[in-house]
Structure prediction request, 97 residues.
Amino acid sequence: MRAPPEPPPPTDSGPGFRRPIVVVQGDALNRSRVATAVCVPLTSNLRWAEAPGNVLLTASMTGLPKDSVANVSQLVARTGRGVSPRPPPLPAERRGK
Prediction:
């Protein structure tokens, strides 16, 4: 999970404002020369946990101050320069969701 650079304010249903993200691509691609990473933004709005495909992540899993939801409807691509330092990976039981 990483924090992306500050995006512009939202103008539609896309993600807006700075928020944590989870990189969701395979390790082989992460180690390659590909400069971008496929990411899922997190939200602290726990109502999104009920939406199909979204995953509830507890604060203890992410190291964030609050529980969060990985919002799969808002996939983004980020470059390595647009990602802040790497925290520990998510627990295995949440990576397969």
